[in-house]
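Researcher: Please translate sequence to structure tokens.
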Amino acid sequence: MHQNQSKTKILLSAASMVVSLAAPVVAGAQEAAQATAAAQTQHQPEDSLQEVIVTGTSIRGVAPVGSDLISLSRTDIEQTGVQTLQQMLKSIPSVTGLQSVGQGAYGVNDSTGANAPTIHGLGGSFSNSTLVLIDGHRFPLAGASGDIADPNMVPANAIERVEVLPDGASSIYGSDAVAGVVNFVTRRHFSGVEANAQTGFGDHYRTYNAGLAMGKLWDGGSVFFAYNFSDRKAVSQEDRPFTFPNHIAQGGTNFANYNCGPASVQPSGGLVYPYPYAAGTGVTRNTDNAFCDQVQAIDLIPAERRNNVMVKIEQEVNERLTLSSDLAYSNRIDHQRLSRGSLTALVYGPGSGMGDQINPFYVAPVGSTATSETVRMSFDDLLGPGAYARASAESYFGTGRAEYKLGGDWLLTGSLMIGANTSTTARFNVLCPSCAILALNGTTDSNGDITTPSIVNTTTTVLNLPLTTANALDPFNPAASNRTSAAVRAGLIDPESYESARTTVQQYDVKVDGTLFHLPAGELRVAAGLEDLRYETDPTTVESLNIGLITSGAQVSSSLKYRREVESGYVEALIPLISAEMRIPLVRTLDIDPSGRYDHYSDFGSTTNPKLGVNWEVVSGLRLRANVARSFVAPPLSAIGQNGVSSADSLSSDLGPFSVPLDRFPQARVIPGCTSPTATVCTFNGSGVEGMIIDGGNNKLKAQQGKTWSVGADLAPEFAPGLTSSLSFWHNELIGGVNAPQPSLAVNSTGFASLLTIYPNGATPAEIDAARAGRPIISVLPQKVYWIYDFRGENALNLKVEGIDADVHYRRDFGWGSARGGAAVAYLTRFDQRIGDGPTFSVLNREGFNSTFPTLQTQVRADFGVNVGHASATVYLNHTGSFTYWGGTAVNDVVTSGGVPVGGGDKVRAYDTVDLHLSYDFAGGLPGSMQAGSTQVFVDVTNLFDRTPPFENATVGGVNSASISGYDPFSGSPIGRVVTAGVRTKF
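Model: Translation complete:
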């Protein structure tokens, strides 16, 4: 009883919100309706009782009012040779990643290879502000944290069209729809058999794809089956010279290092020597002198294999009741070769007085009398190839729907969706760093300090003493003559380490919609519904505690379970105010669409979000539109965690240096290295001022709020048939986005300065234990912990983003065939950012400062095509504008003021590529389209002129971020030209 009352309150709350928006208009319309003898029906869909999926509205068969709906048709899809849903989105400029690789994880830092589309780059490190749907409903989330909406589980040949709504839409759909909605609409009433096969090849790159679609229609029912197989090979770094570490010749940095095999050595305070440590070969340790430029057999992009299946069934039970059901299943496996790994450690030799810690293989540079030295070593030569990562994802969902005709055009719809995803990533045969350090200096501390508080409950450091030729590591000789024992070598390789998450979802929805009454301009149509949504995520991680092999010391997190239930109510009304029959000058038609939704979350509370859309058709062929909305993004379950603790919790010193203003933190002046009376800032995490960070869940997180509006125009003039164009100016705000603030920004914000706690004399073991609150310590702490930084997610990120979306296309028929062409443009005009109440700064067209959401200003996709007889040809131009790189490795220093960037950085040139599609249809059918009894052969070429991505002096993130460099993955792909040839037939 209580649950029913709760749902009733939810629906009434949403209804009252819409009524408050629409009441004045409806009242006037009712009076006019009573004075009208005949109702107008121009807004009635052709089949009023057929459920038609249109993104952005809950009212059947109409386009969203006040918004621009971008659509990619089945024909468009077939003319690009795509193999996955991820690749489909590369042709839509408003979706970030126009020239990205389209393979593996993109837009999210997820080790399992999950991919999340993002509209206008409005994303965050914890949440994506783009809602992704399949046939208008949600589906199982994926990724190592169970937070990522990856739509690639659906077969590519099952997609009828892709719709992108670049406006706030939480009033219809609830959470995530701040930047907008991406909806993949599957084929519904398909008859016949359609088969396709294709293969692609590039420079050391191959792809294979095959698909089968079958459907049958009968009186009152239909069945559809689709299967797709995709196999795409890896791209190796050794085959892409522009990703090699040394970029001095390009005016950049040498990203090589001193981690050699055999190791480089550096006596205390001296030069760095490569093997064989000859006199006069030492160099000063700086970027330009780095000499370990080893190009390894590691993969820039993982190999990927997918299997996708979908089945759809629909049947009319009687003249009132129709039942339907969908089932989708997919599995994906990624394989990526890795480096074995590297490390830096202090090694002691004879005369050091370190007794049992003396390495028996110690070698000093010729002529050196040093008794200890820093060793920097890569283990690829010593251990050989064989390290790799394997990521997998298995997903399914099933839906059931019942549509019941109530009378008139009223339709009652009840639906359910149940699904699950299991995402896993595992690393095999990689280096165990603590095992190597134990064999180098007898401890798990890279500095060889026996007295350092340990990584496990602050007891004592793990030891491997005394070092002998039987248990020590020889880093000084080539692998062929290495004196390290076979047992020690075997003990350097960690067994499997992994993380995984199983996420389940249940969605129940009941909706009623139809015509409420007639107005002079047409029917006033409404839709209202209740929804119940349930998520459950069970993450598991196995993390090394760095006390030896994982088998001897690991943190296993498998008991955490995240739960969430959402109860919602929504209402929408389509109100025609003026119709063409009224003959009002300059107002051919005028419609408004108020909508609203109330959501109650079991873990953080409630939120209410209204929207109002307006369409004004000035004359036939010219429509103006506008909308204003409030939307939200629920904090991810993994960011909230279970009682504030998540499976990813850790303490680590792996945070870059940051400046702390001493006027805001005067207690830091006591710390050695910060005592200069003239200094205004002190550098933490460098110059001996070391500390640690806290990671994990934060159960104080709230909903991330969005405010959006847009205005635009659509033109399809009668005097120029075949011409269509649209122009939109949009504004989007994200307030309190969940983000782990970088210390350099937090310390300059009043609201988040408290995330940094300073211990002028060093934190005591009790203070460290209190701060970590039971979280495992998974890296060796410094001898003095002068600060602790809370690096958990906070409602800290505030964005204001604006831009222009435009599209113009023209098609004309001739006696010999037809021609078509046009362009779609996404252009950002503003991208302001602020952390808490800190200073606002612009990151417009700046890359590198925000690693989780790109701010590229200009993206263009232009096309020109012709049909001649049964032949079709289309040329595509992809343009990504130039931008400025603001990352930490920029050659030209980034200028900061008050802790925020204001200038400097490196200019990165624009990137232009050309794609080509050629096809020929045999035995009937229109050029470029498939009809029954036809066969089509086609050739697609991406990056026709094999353009290399523009140089960016950066290291690319991922599992091999220390060695892959030279381009920006948001705006360029390392794959190069790919030629794909294939055939599809329908009968």
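Researcher: Any highlights?
Model: Residues 2-34 form the longest helix (33 residues).
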